[in-house]
Protein backbone atom coordinates (compact mmCIF):
# COMPACT_ATOMS: atom_id res chain seq x y z
CA UNK A 1 0.00 0.00 0.00
CA UNK A 2 2.82 2.39 0.89
CA UNK A 3 4.66 1.60 -2.36
CA UNK A 4 1.46 2.25 -4.32
CA UNK A 5 0.94 5.60 -2.56
CA UNK A 6 4.51 6.68 -3.32
CA UNK A 7 4.22 5.59 -6.97
CA UNK A 8 0.94 7.45 -7.48
CA UNK A 9 2.32 10.55 -5.74
CA UNK A 10 5.30 10.60 -8.09
CA UNK A 11 3.01 10.09 -11.11
CA UNK A 12 0.71 12.94 -10.04
CA UNK A 13 3.68 15.25 -9.41
CA UNK A 14 5.05 14.42 -12.86
CA UNK A 15 1.66 15.22 -14.45
CA UNK A 16 1.52 18.55 -12.63
CA UNK A 17 5.02 19.49 -13.83
CA UNK A 18 4.27 18.52 -17.45
CA UNK A 19 0.88 20.29 -17.44
CA UNK A 20 2.33 23.39 -15.79
CA UNK A 21 5.20 23.61 -18.28
CA UNK A 22 2.90 23.18 -21.27
CA UNK A 23 0.40 25.71 -19.83
CA UNK A 24 3.15 28.34 -19.66
CA UNK A 25 4.06 27.61 -23.29
CA UNK A 26 0.39 27.85 -24.28
CA UNK A 27 0.01 31.14 -22.40
CA UNK A 28 2.95 32.71 -24.26
CA UNK A 29 1.51 31.47 -27.55
CA UNK A 30 -1.85 33.12 -26.76
CA UNK A 31 -0.12 36.38 -25.82
CA UNK A 32 1.77 36.33 -29.10
CA UNK A 33 -1.41 35.75 -31.09
CA UNK A 34 -3.30 38.41 -29.10
CA UNK A 35 -1.54 41.26 -30.91
CA UNK A 36 -2.50 39.66 -34.25
CA UNK A 37 -6.12 39.36 -33.09
CA UNK A 38 -6.19 43.07 -32.16
CA UNK A 39 -4.97 44.11 -35.62
CA UNK A 40 -7.55 41.85 -37.30
CA UNK A 41 -10.33 43.15 -35.03
CA UNK A 42 -9.51 46.76 -35.94
CA UNK A 43 -9.41 45.91 -39.66
CA UNK A 44 -12.77 44.13 -39.53
CA UNK A 45 -14.35 47.10 -37.69
CA UNK A 46 -13.16 49.42 -40.47
CA UNK A 47 -14.53 47.00 -43.06
CA UNK A 48 -17.91 46.91 -41.29
CA UNK A 49 -18.03 50.73 -41.37
CA UNK A 50 -17.16 50.75 -45.07
CA UNK A 51 -20.06 48.37 -45.70
CA UNK A 52 -22.43 50.84 -43.99
CA UNK A 53 -21.01 53.72 -46.03
CA UNK A 54 -21.39 51.85 -49.33
CA UNK A 55 -25.09 51.31 -48.57
CA UNK A 56 -25.50 55.10 -48.87
CA UNK A 57 -23.38 55.60 -51.98
CA UNK A 58 -26.35 56.15 -54.36
CA UNK A 59 -28.31 58.58 -52.16
CA UNK A 60 -28.43 62.20 -53.53
CA UNK A 61 -27.53 64.88 -50.96
CA UNK A 62 -27.48 68.70 -50.70
CA UNK A 63 -24.17 70.39 -50.01
CA UNK A 64 -23.39 72.63 -47.07
CA UNK A 65 -21.46 75.87 -47.52
CA UNK A 66 -17.84 75.31 -46.62
CA UNK A 67 -14.59 77.21 -46.57
CA UNK A 68 -13.16 78.20 -50.00
CA UNK A 69 -12.39 75.30 -52.30
CA UNK A 70 -8.80 74.24 -52.71
CA UNK A 71 -7.04 71.71 -54.87
CA UNK A 72 -8.40 68.27 -53.90
CA UNK A 73 -6.21 65.24 -53.50
CA UNK A 74 -7.07 61.73 -52.36
CA UNK A 75 -4.74 62.01 -49.38
CA UNK A 76 -4.44 65.43 -47.77
CA UNK A 77 -2.40 66.96 -45.04
CA UNK A 78 -4.20 66.93 -41.72
CA UNK A 79 -6.20 70.19 -41.37
CA UNK A 80 -6.06 71.94 -38.03
CA UNK A 81 -9.62 73.17 -38.41
CA UNK A 82 -12.53 73.62 -40.81
CA UNK A 83 -15.02 76.50 -41.09
CA UNK A 84 -18.70 75.90 -41.81
CA UNK A 85 -21.65 78.23 -42.38
CA UNK A 86 -24.89 76.60 -41.27
CA UNK A 87 -28.19 77.65 -39.69
CA UNK A 88 -26.17 78.26 -36.55
CA UNK A 89 -23.94 80.73 -38.38
CA UNK A 90 -20.30 80.64 -39.35
CA UNK A 91 -18.13 78.63 -37.03
CA UNK A 92 -14.66 77.14 -37.03
CA UNK A 93 -14.21 73.59 -35.70
CA UNK A 94 -10.86 72.23 -34.55
CA UNK A 95 -9.85 68.78 -35.85
CA UNK A 96 -7.35 66.96 -33.63
CA UNK A 97 -4.57 65.29 -35.60
CA UNK A 98 -5.26 61.94 -33.93
CA UNK A 99 -8.85 61.94 -35.15
CA UNK A 100 -7.84 62.82 -38.71
CA UNK A 101 -5.13 60.12 -38.66
CA UNK A 102 -7.81 57.50 -37.93
CA UNK A 103 -10.47 58.95 -40.23
CA UNK A 104 -12.27 56.42 -42.43
CA UNK A 105 -11.71 58.69 -45.49
CA UNK A 106 -9.35 61.65 -45.71
CA UNK A 107 -10.37 63.39 -48.95
CA UNK A 108 -12.16 66.65 -48.09
CA UNK A 109 -15.09 66.24 -50.49
CA UNK A 110 -15.82 62.67 -49.41
CA UNK A 111 -15.67 63.64 -45.75
CA UNK A 112 -18.13 66.44 -46.39
CA UNK A 113 -20.56 64.16 -48.26
CA UNK A 114 -20.24 61.55 -45.52
CA UNK A 115 -21.24 64.13 -42.89
CA UNK A 116 -24.48 64.87 -44.73
CA UNK A 117 -25.28 61.21 -45.35
CA UNK A 118 -24.72 60.14 -41.76
CA UNK A 119 -26.82 63.03 -40.47
CA UNK A 120 -29.80 62.16 -42.69
CA UNK A 121 -29.38 58.37 -42.57
CA UNK A 122 -27.80 57.42 -39.23
CA UNK A 123 -26.00 54.12 -38.81
CA UNK A 124 -27.75 51.38 -36.83
CA UNK A 125 -25.26 50.48 -34.11
CA UNK A 126 -26.70 46.99 -33.62
CA UNK A 127 -26.51 46.26 -37.35
CA UNK A 128 -22.94 47.51 -37.42
CA UNK A 129 -22.11 45.25 -34.45
CA UNK A 130 -23.62 42.17 -36.16
CA UNK A 131 -21.65 42.84 -39.35
CA UNK A 132 -18.48 43.21 -37.31
CA UNK A 133 -19.08 39.88 -35.50
CA UNK A 134 -19.62 38.13 -38.84
CA UNK A 135 -16.34 39.47 -40.20
CA UNK A 136 -14.51 38.40 -37.04
CA UNK A 137 -15.85 34.85 -37.30
CA UNK A 138 -14.76 34.75 -40.94
CA UNK A 139 -11.22 35.35 -39.67
CA UNK A 140 -11.69 32.62 -37.00
CA UNK A 141 -11.66 35.12 -34.15
CA UNK A 142 -14.15 34.25 -31.41
CA UNK A 143 -14.91 37.22 -29.18
CA UNK A 144 -17.63 39.11 -27.34
CA UNK A 145 -17.97 42.63 -28.76
CA UNK A 146 -19.91 45.86 -28.51
CA UNK A 147 -19.69 49.27 -30.21
CA UNK A 148 -19.83 52.78 -28.83
CA UNK A 149 -21.13 55.21 -31.48
CA UNK A 150 -20.76 58.96 -30.77
CA UNK A 151 -21.89 61.98 -32.83
CA UNK A 152 -20.86 65.59 -32.12
CA UNK A 153 -23.36 68.06 -33.66
CA UNK A 154 -22.69 71.56 -35.02
CA UNK A 155 -23.20 73.01 -31.55
CA UNK A 156 -20.56 70.56 -30.26
CA UNK A 157 -22.94 68.49 -28.14
CA UNK A 158 -22.06 64.80 -28.16
CA UNK A 159 -24.61 62.00 -28.27
CA UNK A 160 -23.40 58.48 -27.48
CA UNK A 161 -25.12 55.22 -28.32
CA UNK A 162 -24.08 51.68 -27.39
CA UNK A 163 -24.98 48.46 -29.09
CA UNK A 164 -27.20 46.05 -27.18
CA UNK A 165 -24.29 43.73 -26.34
CA UNK A 166 -22.75 46.44 -24.12
CA UNK A 167 -24.41 45.12 -20.95
CA UNK A 168 -23.02 41.62 -21.58
CA UNK A 169 -19.37 42.67 -21.94
CA UNK A 170 -18.58 45.68 -19.73
CA UNK A 171 -14.95 44.51 -19.22
CA UNK A 172 -14.02 44.32 -22.91
CA UNK A 173 -10.84 46.04 -24.17
CA UNK A 174 -11.20 49.04 -26.47
CA UNK A 175 -9.72 49.31 -29.94
CA UNK A 176 -8.50 52.48 -31.64
CA UNK A 177 -11.66 54.39 -32.68
CA UNK A 178 -12.56 55.18 -36.30
CA UNK A 179 -13.74 58.68 -37.26
CA UNK A 180 -16.03 59.81 -40.07
CA UNK A 181 -17.36 63.11 -41.39
CA UNK A 182 -15.95 66.45 -42.45
CA UNK A 183 -15.21 67.47 -38.86
CA UNK A 184 -14.44 63.90 -37.80
CA UNK A 185 -17.56 64.31 -35.74
CA UNK A 186 -18.63 60.66 -35.84
CA UNK A 187 -16.68 58.25 -33.68
CA UNK A 188 -17.09 54.46 -33.80
CA UNK A 189 -15.16 52.65 -31.07
CA UNK A 190 -15.08 48.86 -30.87
CA UNK A 191 -14.66 46.85 -27.67
CA UNK A 192 -13.52 43.22 -27.69
CA UNK A 193 -13.31 40.44 -25.10
CA UNK A 194 -11.52 37.51 -26.75
CA UNK A 195 -12.62 33.94 -26.06
CA UNK A 196 -9.07 32.71 -26.39
CA UNK A 197 -9.91 29.24 -25.06
CA UNK A 198 -12.19 28.70 -28.07
CA UNK A 199 -9.45 29.73 -30.50
CA UNK A 200 -6.90 27.22 -29.23
CA UNK A 201 -6.63 24.19 -31.52
CA UNK A 202 -8.11 20.90 -30.36
CA UNK A 203 -4.78 19.08 -30.52
CA UNK A 204 -3.30 21.67 -28.11
CA UNK A 205 -6.03 20.94 -25.57
CA UNK A 206 -5.37 17.24 -26.19
CA UNK A 207 -1.69 17.62 -25.28
CA UNK A 208 -2.71 19.51 -22.13
CA UNK A 209 -4.89 16.68 -20.81
CA UNK A 210 -2.86 13.78 -22.22
CA UNK A 211 -0.70 13.28 -19.07
CA UNK A 212 -3.83 13.07 -16.91
CA UNK A 213 -5.43 10.55 -19.23
CA UNK A 214 -2.25 8.49 -18.96
CA UNK A 215 -2.39 8.80 -15.16
CA UNK A 216 -6.00 7.54 -15.08
CA UNK A 217 -5.06 4.55 -17.23
CA UNK A 218 -2.08 3.84 -14.98
CA UNK A 219 -4.23 4.02 -11.83
CA UNK A 220 -6.83 1.72 -13.37
CA UNK A 221 -4.26 -0.84 -14.50
CA UNK A 222 -1.87 -0.45 -11.54
CA UNK A 223 -2.59 -3.82 -9.97
CA UNK A 224 -2.32 -5.65 -13.28
CA UNK A 225 1.01 -3.99 -14.04
CA UNK A 226 2.40 -4.85 -10.61
CA UNK A 227 1.10 -8.43 -10.86
CA UNK A 228 2.72 -8.82 -14.28
CA UNK A 229 6.14 -7.78 -13.00
CA UNK A 230 5.74 -9.89 -9.88
CA UNK A 231 5.06 -12.96 -12.00
CA UNK A 232 8.11 -12.20 -14.13
CA UNK A 233 10.19 -11.82 -11.00
CA UNK A 234 8.91 -15.07 -9.52
CA UNK A 235 9.63 -16.96 -12.73
CA UNK A 236 13.22 -15.78 -12.63
CA UNK A 237 13.49 -16.70 -8.95
CA UNK A 238 12.18 -20.23 -9.68
CA UNK A 239 14.77 -20.77 -12.37
CA UNK A 240 17.61 -19.62 -10.14
CA UNK A 241 16.60 -21.72 -7.14
CA UNK A 242 15.98 -24.80 -9.21
CA UNK A 243 19.60 -24.57 -10.28
CA UNK A 244 20.58 -24.20 -6.62
CA UNK A 245 18.51 -27.28 -5.78
CA UNK A 246 20.36 -29.34 -8.39
CA UNK A 247 23.67 -28.37 -6.79
CA UNK A 248 22.64 -28.64 -3.13
CA UNK A 249 20.37 -31.62 -3.48
CA UNK A 250 23.11 -34.09 -2.56
CA UNK A 251 23.22 -33.16 1.15
CA UNK A 252 20.18 -32.62 3.41
CA UNK A 253 19.75 -31.56 7.02
CA UNK A 254 16.95 -33.55 8.58
CA UNK A 255 14.44 -32.29 11.15
CA UNK A 256 15.98 -31.76 14.56
CA UNK A 257 12.99 -33.24 16.38
CA UNK A 258 11.75 -32.49 19.90
CA UNK A 259 10.45 -29.03 20.73
CA UNK A 260 11.64 -29.18 24.37
CA UNK A 261 15.29 -28.73 23.42
CA UNK A 262 16.79 -25.29 23.88
CA UNK A 263 20.02 -25.77 21.94
CA UNK A 264 19.90 -26.93 18.32
CA UNK A 265 23.02 -28.47 16.74
CA UNK A 266 23.40 -28.57 12.97
CA UNK A 267 25.45 -31.29 11.28
CA UNK A 268 28.15 -28.78 10.32
CA UNK A 269 28.82 -28.22 14.04
CA UNK A 270 26.87 -24.98 14.38
CA UNK A 271 24.84 -24.53 17.57
CA UNK A 272 21.75 -22.33 17.74
CA UNK A 273 20.43 -20.98 21.04
CA UNK A 274 16.96 -19.40 20.36
CA UNK A 275 16.70 -18.09 23.91
CA UNK A 276 19.96 -16.13 23.85
CA UNK A 277 19.61 -15.66 20.05
CA UNK A 278 23.15 -16.85 19.34
CA UNK A 279 24.68 -18.94 16.57
CA UNK A 280 27.97 -20.55 17.67
CA UNK A 281 30.48 -22.57 15.69
CA UNK A 282 33.76 -23.30 17.39
CA UNK A 283 35.17 -20.02 18.65
CA UNK A 284 32.90 -17.94 16.41
CA UNK A 285 29.64 -16.45 17.61
CA UNK A 286 26.91 -14.54 15.77
CA UNK A 287 24.13 -12.57 17.44
CA UNK A 288 20.80 -13.15 15.67
CA UNK A 289 18.07 -10.53 15.25
CA UNK A 290 14.74 -11.28 17.00
CA UNK A 291 12.75 -11.65 13.77
CA UNK A 292 15.44 -13.90 12.23
CA UNK A 293 15.40 -16.02 15.42
CA UNK A 294 11.65 -16.61 15.10
CA UNK A 295 11.93 -17.55 11.41
CA UNK A 296 14.89 -19.91 11.97
CA UNK A 297 13.07 -21.65 14.79
CA UNK A 298 10.00 -22.06 12.55
CA UNK A 299 12.18 -23.82 9.99
CA UNK A 300 13.71 -26.12 12.63
CA UNK A 301 10.30 -27.12 13.99
CA UNK A 302 8.74 -27.70 10.58
CA UNK A 303 8.48 -30.98 8.69
CA UNK A 304 11.53 -31.59 6.47
CA UNK A 305 12.73 -28.11 7.42
CA UNK A 306 10.27 -26.71 4.83
CA UNK A 307 7.96 -23.71 5.13
CA UNK A 308 5.30 -22.56 2.70
CA UNK A 309 5.01 -18.86 1.95
CA UNK A 310 1.53 -18.82 3.51
CA UNK A 311 2.92 -20.32 6.73
CA UNK A 312 5.56 -17.63 6.96
CA UNK A 313 3.01 -14.88 6.33
CA UNK A 314 0.75 -16.35 9.01
CA UNK A 315 3.44 -16.71 11.70
CA UNK A 316 5.45 -13.58 11.02
CA UNK A 317 2.75 -11.06 10.04
CA UNK A 318 -0.49 -12.72 11.16
CA UNK A 319 -1.54 -13.38 7.59
CA UNK A 320 -0.54 -9.93 6.34
CA UNK A 321 2.79 -8.87 4.92
CA UNK A 322 3.92 -8.31 1.33
CA UNK A 323 6.17 -10.24 -1.09
CA UNK A 324 8.87 -7.58 -0.66
CA UNK A 325 8.85 -8.12 3.12
CA UNK A 326 9.13 -11.88 2.69
CA UNK A 327 12.01 -11.60 0.21
CA UNK A 328 13.82 -9.18 2.54
CA UNK A 329 13.39 -11.48 5.57
CA UNK A 330 14.66 -14.58 3.71
CA UNK A 331 17.66 -12.62 2.45
CA UNK A 332 18.52 -11.50 5.99
CA UNK A 333 18.33 -15.11 7.24
CA UNK A 334 20.63 -16.29 4.44
CA UNK A 335 23.15 -13.55 5.20
CA UNK A 336 23.08 -14.35 8.93
CA UNK A 337 23.70 -18.08 8.34
CA UNK A 338 26.35 -17.41 5.72
CA UNK A 339 28.55 -15.58 8.22
CA UNK A 340 28.99 -18.61 10.50
CA UNK A 341 27.40 -21.74 9.01
CA UNK A 342 27.19 -23.86 5.85
CA UNK A 343 23.40 -23.95 6.21
CA UNK A 344 21.32 -21.81 3.85
CA UNK A 345 17.73 -21.34 2.65
CA UNK A 346 16.68 -22.40 -0.84
CA UNK A 347 13.49 -21.86 -2.85
CA UNK A 348 12.04 -24.97 -4.49
CA UNK A 349 9.91 -23.15 -7.10
CA UNK A 350 6.59 -24.11 -5.53
CA UNK A 351 6.15 -21.26 -3.04
CA UNK A 352 8.21 -23.30 -0.53
CA UNK A 353 11.47 -22.48 1.24
CA UNK A 354 13.74 -25.15 2.77
CA UNK A 355 16.69 -25.13 5.15
CA UNK A 356 19.63 -27.04 3.56
CA UNK A 357 23.34 -27.45 3.87
CA UNK A 358 25.34 -25.78 1.12
CA UNK A 359 27.58 -28.75 0.13
CA UNK A 360 30.03 -29.02 -2.77
CA UNK A 361 28.88 -31.21 -5.66
CA UNK A 362 32.42 -32.59 -5.86
CA UNK A 363 31.58 -34.99 -2.99
CA UNK A 364 31.01 -38.54 -4.14
CA UNK A 365 27.56 -40.15 -4.13
CA UNK A 366 28.28 -42.53 -1.22
CA UNK A 367 29.40 -39.75 1.07
CA UNK A 368 26.42 -37.64 0.06
CA UNK A 369 24.02 -40.49 0.86
CA UNK A 370 25.71 -41.04 4.19
CA UNK A 371 25.31 -37.37 5.16
CA UNK A 372 21.74 -37.22 3.81
CA UNK A 373 20.55 -40.09 6.00
CA UNK A 374 22.48 -39.18 9.13
CA UNK A 375 20.40 -37.81 12.04
CA UNK A 376 21.59 -34.44 13.42
CA UNK A 377 22.66 -34.37 17.01
CA UNK A 378 20.70 -32.28 19.47
CA UNK A 379 21.91 -30.85 22.75
CA UNK A 380 19.46 -30.10 25.52
CA UNK A 381 20.38 -27.28 27.90
CA UNK A 382 19.41 -27.17 31.64
CA UNK A 383 17.95 -30.67 31.46
CA UNK A 384 16.10 -31.70 34.61
Write a structural description.
It is built from eleven helices and 16 strands. With 384 residues, it is α+β, with helices and mostly antiparallel strands. Strand 14 and strand 15 form a beta hairpin. The relative contact order is 0.09. The C terminus is likely disordered.
Report the C-alpha radius of gyration, rounded: 47 Å
**Total helical elements:** 11
Main sheet record: 5 strands, antiparallel
From the N-terminal CA to the C-terminal CA, the straight-line distance is 50 Å
N-to-C SSE string, H for helix and E for strand? HEEEHHHEEEEEHHHEEEEHEHHEEHE
The beta-strand count equals 16
Q: Based on Cα principal axes, name the global outline.
A: rod-shaped
Uncertain runs with pLDDT below 50, 5 residues or more?
Answer: 62-75, 235-259, 360-384
What would you call the structural class? Answer: alpha+beta
Helices and strands, with pairings:
Layout: H1 2-54, E1 65-66, E2 81-86, E3 89-94, H2 97-101, H3 108-120, H4 125-138, E4 143-152, E5 158-162, E6 173-174, E7 178-180, E8 186-194, H5 196-199, H6 202-220, H7 222-248, E9 263-265, E10 271-273, E11 278-281, E12 284-287, H8 290-301, E13 306-308, H9 309-317, H10 323-338, E14 343-347, E15 352-357, H11 365-373, E16 378-379
Helix pairs in contact: 1-4, 1-6, 8-10
Amino acid sequence: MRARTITLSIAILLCIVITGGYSVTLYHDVQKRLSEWKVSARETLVEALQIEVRKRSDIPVDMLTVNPAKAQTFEENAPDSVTLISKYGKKTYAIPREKFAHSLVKERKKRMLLSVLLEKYPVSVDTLNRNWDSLLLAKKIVADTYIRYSITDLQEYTTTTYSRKYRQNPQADSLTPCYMGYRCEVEAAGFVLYRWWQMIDGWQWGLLVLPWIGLCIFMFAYRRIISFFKEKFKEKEVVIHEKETIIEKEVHVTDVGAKTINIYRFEDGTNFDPVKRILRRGDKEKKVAPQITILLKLFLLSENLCLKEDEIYKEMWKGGGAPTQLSSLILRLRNTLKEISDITVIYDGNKTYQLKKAHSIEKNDDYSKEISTRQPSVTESNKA
